[in-house]
Amino acid sequence: MTAETEKLLDDTGWQLLQAMQRNARLSFSELGKQVGLSASAVAERIRRMEDAGIIRGYRVEIDPARVGLPIMAFIHINTPSNKPYSYFAAAAKEIAEVLECHQITGSDSMIMKVAVSSVKHLETLISRLSVYGRPTTSIVLSTQVAQGFITPQSLLDAQAAEREETQK
Which InterPro entries match (predicted)? Predict the structure, then answer.
C-alpha cells in the first residue's frame, strides 16, 4: 500500500467507503453529514480515491430472478493444459449468462458465476462450455451473504494473519 493510499484510508476515508458500499447513490452533501465534512471536501476525497484506484466504479445491482433469470450457479472449468487461460477468458466475456469469471488455484482452472432462466437453460450452457474443458456445476440454493463489505477490520485481520504466518 502506498503512502498516498494510507493517507486516503484514514478514519474518515474508511467511513466514506463504508457509507458508499451501503449506498453509492448518496450525495456528497449526505456523505459529508455522515462523516463531518463539507460536500466539496467529500467530492475531493472521492476523486482522489478514484484516481488512486481505491474506488474502481459504480454500478447498479440487478436482481436476476426479477428479470427472468432465477437460477444462479457456479461452474468450474478444468481447461486442457495445452490451452492458455486467456483462450477461455476471452470466450467467457462473450457468454451473456456469465456474471463473473475467475482464474483459480486447485484442480480447476476457472470458476464462473452464471444466471440462467431454467435448468434446461443451464444444461444448454454447460454443453456450450464443455468445448473449453470439463465443467463441474453447483446450483445456488440460497445466498447467505449477498455482498460483503471491505472494512478497516478486513485489513487488520489480513495484516494479523500475515504476521502470524511470518512468526511460524
Answer: ArsR-like_HTH, AsnC-type_HTH_dom, Dimeric_a/b-barrel, Tscrpt_reg_AsnC-like, Tscrpt_reg_AsnC/Lrp_C, Tscrpt_reg_HTH_AsnC-type_CS, WH-like_DNA-bd_sf, WH_DNA-bd_sf
User: SS3 for 104-125, per residue?
Assistant: CCCCCCEEEEEEECCHHHHHHH
Q: Which amino acid makes up residue 39? A: A
**Each residue's pLDDT tens digit, 42-55:** 999 999 999 999 99
| Whole-prediction pTM | 0.78
Please check whether residue 144 lies inside any domain of the structure. Answer: no
Domain containing residue 123: CATH number: 3.30.70.920
What is the DSSP code (8-state) at residue 64? G
From CA 38, how far away is CA 29, in angstroms rounded? 7
Coil, helix or strand for 134? strand
> For residue 37, is it within any domain?
yes
Task: Give the rounded percent of residues in the chain with a pLDDT score beyond 90.
Answer: 65
CATH of the domain at 11: 1.10.10.10
> How far is the C-alpha of 17 from the C-alpha of 55, rounded, in Å?
8
